[in-house]
Amino acid sequence: MSKELIVEWTSIYKTGIDFIDVQHKRLFDEITKLKKLEQNSRETNREVYRILNFLEEYIIIHFSEEEAYMDKIGYDDIISHKSIHSNFIKEFDTLKNRLDSDGNYNPVQLFFFLIKWLQQHIAIEDQKYVNYQSIGK
Ligand SMILES: [Fe+2]
């Protein structure tokens, strides 16, 4: 990957598994909304709060459906992939709780944290089970 962050959803993030691509794109779209918000306004805080609540639920749904898929194809590294997911859920919850108690969100900082994680995860970790499935066991 180049050093420049490509922040839009592009075909390089495609796994070729339709429901997973739809969910990844939804995550991208929702996270990208953060980038467009102004800093330090009451309106922004409300919107960030809404986005984080959405992500909190959607990430859990996405991870569990992806894990069911990995299980279905018999992916041999599923345990380490699951632990990456659960570590991220913990990290996300810690971050969200801290922000909820501060009540003051920095949307751009949050955007970069989340989009970097998602891009790297899709490009590196998700690609591993995609390769496993297409190249064979
Ligand atoms: Fe994943």
UniProtKB/TrEMBL annotation:
Keywords: Iron, Metal-binding, Oxygen transport, Transport. The keyword Methyltransferase does not apply. The keyword Metal-binding applies. GO terms for molecular function: metal ion binding; oxygen carrier activity. Residues 15-130 form the Hemerythrin-like domain. This is Bacteriohemerythrin. CDD domains: Hemerythrin. InterPro entries: Haemerythrin_Fe_BS, Hemerythrin, Hemerythrin-like, Hemerythrin-like_sf, Hemerythrin_metal-bd. Belongs to the hemerythrin family. It holds the Pfam family Hemerythrin.
